[in-house]
Model the fold of this input.
Amino acid sequence: MNFYLTISFQKQVKKLCRNDVGLRTVFKKQFLLFQKNPLHPSLRLHKLKGRRSEQYAIWIKGDLRALSIKDGELYVFFDLIRHNQY
Done:
């Protein structure tokens, strides 16, 4: 599956990984998995509801989620949020 990481998304990842060295490995694992099979159960890909109804989320670690929008066959990841921020 094709995906794109926005510059702001990459900055958020870099900032989070400064404080948690193992998190970089988790991000790499999840996005490699997404590239191979976006419907893999451990990603928990789901479409959001309400004001975010055009967005999708995948599980990264704990309550951390990566948000994306789907443009044809391309997923554009643009934000990292905690589950309670939906």
Q: What stands out?
A: The longest helix spans residues 21-36. The CA atoms of residues 17 and 23 lie 6 Å apart. Helices lie at 7-19, 21-36. The chain has one domain: 2-85.
